[in-house]
Amino acid sequence: MEKLLIAEFQNEYDLVDSVKAVRAAEVEVVDAYTPYAVHGLDKAMDLKSSRLTRICFTFGFIGLLVGVFGQYWVSAVNWPINIGGRPWNSLPAFMPVAFEVIILFAGLGTVFSFFAWRRLKYGKPGLQPSLRVTNDRFYLVMKQGQQRKSSAPVSEIVMAHHGKMVEN
Q1: Angle between helices 52-72 and 91-117 (to 10 degrees)
Q2: Is residue 48 exposed (0-12), middle (13-18) or buried (19+ Cβ within 10 Å)?
Q3: CA–CA distance, 28 with 30 (Å, rounded to integer)
Q4: What is the mean pLDDT of residues 81-94?
Q5: What is the CATH number of the domain that holds 150?
Q6: I want to staple 9 with a disulfide (CB 3.0 to 4.6 A). Which of 14, 17, 51, 166 is the partner?
Q7: pTM for this one?
Q8: How many domains are there within the chain?
């Protein structure tokens, strides 16, 4: 198992600059832990765009179809009752419920797809560098690599960007 190097930073600007410098030194970045979303970190880490947006749209569209066709089938085919003089297949009357079904399908479908895609399950251990990571610190996790016997070059890069190395 390769040794992980963990660096701690006080602010997000030093973290993003350090990620760029570490990647330029050909050190593999495993992950970055931040208490909030950091603009530009995804580009600095060279992450691909997420597939979750397409998954969410797909489940939302399925929800739209289920909501509209389900109401049409109930109102016009299976149990046609004239309520208030409106036609049985009144599309504007179906929209509020269809909207709610879109939100339900998109939300639940995205969450369960994410859990299945990342193989997340109850009790799976995670790497949490410090308890302060969700409060006010920024952490960068890197692999030391087999060819490097020392972490001194990485430490120099981190120190140049106002960070400090944390023992793993």
Answers
A1: 140
A2: exposed
A3: 6
A4: 78
A5: 3.30.70
A6: 14
A7: 0.67
A8: 2
Domain of residue 90: give its range: 52-117
* Integer Cα distance of 154 and 142 in angstroms: 9
Return the HEC string of the chain.
CCCEEEEEECCHHHHHHHHHHHHHCCCCEEEEECCCCCCCHHHHCCCCCCCHHHHHHHHHHHHHHHHHHHHHHHHHHHCCCCCCCCCCCCHHHHHHHHHHHHHHHHHHHHHHHHHHHCCCCCCCCCCCCCHHHHCCCEEEEEECCCCCCCCHHHHHHHHHCCCEEECC
Give 99-131 pLDDT, tens digit per residue. 999 999 999 999 999 988 887 777 767 666 666
**Are 111 and 78 within one domain?**
yes
> What does the block give as tokens for 14?
């030093």
